[in-house]
Amino acid sequence: MSLPTVNTQRRTADAVLAPAAPAQIGPNSVIQTLAALKELEGTATRDRVARLAGLPATEPTGMIPEAAFSSLLSSLRRELDEDTVREVLVQSGEKTGDYVAANRIPAPLRSLFGWLPARMSIPLLLVAFRRHAWTFAGNSSFELGGTYPGSILLDNAPTCRLAGAVNPTGGYYAAAFQRLLSLASPGVLVTETECRSCGAPHCRFDIHLTDHSSNNSSKKELSSHRPRG
Questions:
Q1: How do residues 175-187 score in pLDDT, each as one tens digit?
Q2: pTM, two decimal places
Q3: Is 25 helix (H, G, I), strand (E, B) or coil?
Q4: Which candidate, 113, 133, 142, 221, has a CA 20 to 30 Å from the CA of 172?
Q5: DSSP annotation string for 112-143
Q6: What is the CATH number of the domain that holds 31?
Q7: How many domains does the chain have?
C-alpha cells in the first residue's frame, strides 16, 4: 500500500518556504513509559530518568513534541541496561494499548470487535490504526502489508532510530499493537521481524493468530455455554 503523493506544483511559495511543524506524538508514549519505569525500577529511578530527559513535572494532557519521547528514550538507554530498557518499553506499550482501548474506543465498539469474526474485526482495527498512527508513531510513516492477518510497517519509529543494534528495539509498538488487536482476537500475537535499528529499511510487525483465536465463532459458542452463578 503506497503513501499518497503530493502535487508539489500546486504549493504556494509561502508553503514551500515555511518551516515544517515539529512532529507530535500522543502523551501516553511518555506517561506510560514513566509509569512502567516506576513499577519496574522504583520512583527514584523514574524521577532521575525524567529529570535527565528534561521532562516537565506535570503530566501532559494533550499531544506533545515527539522530541520529548525521543529524549526520554535516550535517558533510559543511558541509565539502564538493554534488557531493562526493553522490559520497560514492552510494559509501556501494553499500558498504552490498554489505555487506548479503554478510553479511545467506545464500549459498544469494543463489544462488537469481540463478537465479529477475527477476519472482519482485525482489518477494521488496522484501518483505525492507520488513520490515527501519528498519535503513537510520531513522524514515522505507517503502512499495512501482506495478506490476512498481515503486517504493520513503520518507517523511522521513535524507539527504532539506533544504529547498529543487535536486537530489535520496537517492543513498545509490538506490545501496543498486540493489546489493541486482542480486542478482535484474544490469542493474537505480534512480533517484530525486521527493525530499522538492526539495519532494515523499516520495522515490520507480523500479526499471528493462534489456532484457538483464528475464528471467534468458537469463542462465542464457549461463552454461550458457561455456567451461571
A1: 999 999 999 998 8
A2: 0.83
A3: strand
A4: 113
A5: HHHHS-HHHHHHHHHHHHHHTTHHHHTT-EEE
A6: 3.90.1520.10
A7: 1
